[in-house]
Amino acid sequence: MTTLAVATAAVVTTMLTGCGALDKAMDCVKTADAIATSVGKLQDAVSNASNDVTQIEESLNSISTELGNLKNSTDNADLSKAVDDLTKGVESVRDAVKNGDATPDITPITSAATELGKVCTPG
Asked: Highest taxon of the source (predicted)?
């Protein structure tokens, strides 16, 4: 009876740990998707910067918010690096806009977002 109880406890613990990992992976995927959406909006904002430069800042703020949420919820080294790279790209674009560049190069952001998507893709 004790062996069965120990075995059952081990299986339940494994399942709960697996669910925790799955939940974390799903959160990562959802956040990566939100960031991808924000990056798409940033691309549109840069393309249409002559119409409204404030859209760039709004997109950058959205990406920063999602990155902050993701950074606070992970201890994965690859994910942390991808978040750091994306954060650096956001700050670079933000600095360029502050310095008057209405059509900044957003390649560092799109590249880092792609890498983040790879890290967050399960399997």
From this structure: Bacteria
